[in-house]
What we know:
Elements: E1 18-22, H1 28-39, E2 43-48, H2 51-63, E3 68-72, H3 78-93, E4 98-103, H4 118-146, E5 149-154, H5 167-187, E6 192-199, H6 205-213, H7 215-224, H8 237-244, E7 255-258
Parallel strand pairs: 1-2, 1-4, 2-3, 4-5, 5-6, 6-7
Helix pairs in contact: 3-4, 4-5, 6-7
Amino acid sequence: MAEENIGSIEPNFSLKGKLAVITGASMGIGKEIARAFAAAGAEIIVTARTESKLIELKEDVEKDGGICHFRVNDITNISQIEELADFIREKLSEQDKDLVLVNNAGFGFTKPVLEVTKEDFDLITSTHLRGTFFCCQKIGEIMLERGYGKIINLGSTWGYTTDAKKAPYCMAKAGIAHMSRAISTEWAPNGIRINTLAPTGTVTEFTQKTWESMPERAQGILSRIKLGRFAYPSDHLGAAIFLASSASDFITGQTIYVDGGFTAAG
């Protein structure tokens, strides 16, 4: 794709002409990014492990006039990532669109270091680190063949700061941010931009249940967010659209914190 914004004073935030793939899109931040990308003009492919939620999302997007495909997919299974890449190739063989990948799939838990099991550790690393890496590899290969692409990896403020009982999650999210920087260095000469979007504590179905069961912890997190409230998925959509659009074509290897002042306060 040509560098269409060079010399322009009108940055293009539209996602028309893009095929955007969003993993972990059945709920939370991933679901809202998918809906926002479709509203901004992208054709979207959404993936997750729960088919019923993907069908519901597809119906919502199409009701609003968007184009949505879905694949039931577990990113801890590399063969399923390869199948997803094949599906993307098939879609791009039918039309010439710029490819965008949002690696959103993930999860977290809160446990003291001494209580973390091998299963806990393996699951968080296979999801956040191995899954994200091989999604970048298999889908990024398509971008390399085409000479242009955007990858947005979902990080976290916990990839920069720390807290008790969050060691595996902090490790995984810090790894995602540094992985993004490392891949960006290798792939920038080939036209691929890769950045990390790092939210603070965000109100979702999952976090609401967690915070209700741990009110003191929730208050501790809230006290570090200097704008005085938790984020909502909608707070992250502007940054996500920016990173997916040609308006951010000269940005790569960066971590964008959407955190209400969390990291600035230390």
